[in-house]
Design brief:
357 residues, alpha+beta, 9 helices, 16 strands
């Protein structure tokens, strides 16, 4: 029995091939494809192939390099595996009927703490800005295992992490973009994004696995207490055995040496328990979405004594709030800011000693 592939399946095959640089030409049986060398190597085919809509039994056995694209066929399996091997990248544009145009000074005062300074809004302007929405899967492994999903959103212009934006995206009108080439980023941009993720992932996963970590800590402390009790009892028993009459000097010496070794043996056992209950976390990217949205850029002037500093903030229409600022010392996002003598924007941790200065 043969099954004809539906249009959706053929559409997937065409998009996959074209995305990877193939040139297609349709005919009455299906289409012909000229593949670049990298793609033919990936699919393990020649660079020129025929793809038929019929089942394998319908293909002329004398026809070279002819393939079927039915479900379960060799070529389709290769394409599916290749497509699933990479995290999908989506692009969307957000649309808003109304953008906030006033009241930013009050909003900033409610959201931010500028220690040792006062400030005011100098000007505002409507802009287009981009965010990257990363969905990551984590596996926390110890004596047990916990899995979960963490979503992170960063502004590509400022690098700030916007914690609540992921949960509020569903309320915005989104227009997904198809037929557009994937974003091309240089090595510098990619390295910056990786650094943002590394910094924020530690905090985000710590929140996710908090109860799991507490459980492993309780079990570690329980087992250590039992171990210490066992070795304390063992030492006491061995010391009492030395009081028995009739023991030879050699036997007493041997037992004393064994007693002396007990602390090292206990330390090794504790180390084994520590390794057993330590948590190792593996993170992998599941998907990425590039979000383009209108926003408001706010030019803000802060007065620190007699000194002045101008900087910009971004009003986010999705969260209906102002995005956090990035600490110039450590790169973390914060709404509690300090200024050093050279007016670097710093988080509370970096304010004690400016890493930039």
């Amino acid at each position: 029995m043969s099954f004809e592939p539906d249009q959706e399946l053929e559409h997937f095959v065409c998009r996959f091939l074209e995305t990877h640089g193939a040139v297609l030409e349709k005919n009455r049986k299906g289409f012909e494809a000229l593949l670049p060398e990298t793609l033919s190597g990936l699919l393990e085919t020649s660079e020129y192939i025929h793809i038929n809509r019929g089942a394998v039994s319908d293909i002329d056995p004398e026809s070279k390099n002819a393939y079927s694209i039915n479900y379960g066929s060799y070529l389709l399996e290769k394409m599916v595996n290749a497509a699933c091997g990479l995290a999908p990248l989506l692009s969307c544009q957000l649309k808003f009927d109304y953008l906030k145009s006033a009241g930013f000074g009050r909003l900033i005062k409610e959201q931010f703490d500028f220690h040792g300074s006062v400030g005011k809004v100098e000007s505002t302007a409507k802009i287009k800005t981009e965010y990257i929405f990363l969905t990551c899967r984590y596996i926390a492994q110890s004596d047990e295992q916990k899995e979960g999903i963490v979503s992170l959103i960063f502004n590509l212009e400022t690098g700030t992490h916007v914690p609540h934006m992921a949960h509020m995206l569903s309320s915005a009108v989104r227009d997904f973009i198809t037929g557009k080439k994937a974003a091309t980023w240089g090595d510098k941009q990619i390295k910056e994004i990786i650094e943002w993720v590394k910094r924020q992932m530690k905090e985000s996963i710590a929140e996710e696995i908090g109860p799991f970590q507490e459980s492993m800590t309780r079990r570690f402390k329980r087992d250590v207490a039992n171990l210490e009790e066992y070795y304390a009892g063992l030492k006491e028993e061995m010391e009492k055995s030395l009081e028995r009459p009739g023991l030879s000097d050699q036997l007493i010496k041997d037992r004393q040496e064994k007693i002396a070794l007990l602390p090292d043996e206990l330390a090794r056992k504790k180390d084994d328990l520590f390794k057993k209950y330590s948590i190792k976390v593996k993170v992998e990217l599941c998907s990425a979405m590039l979000i383009s949205t209108p926003a408001i850029k706010i030019l803000y002037k802060a007065s620190i004594g007699r000194k002045r500093k101008n900087f910009s903030l971004i009003y986010n229409p999705v969260t209906k709030s102002v995005d956090p600022l990035v600490c110039q010392g450590c790169g973390r996002s914060t709404t509690s800011l300090y200024f050093c003598d050279r007016l670097h924007l710093l988080c509370p941790t970096c304010s004690k000693r400016c890493p930039v200065c």
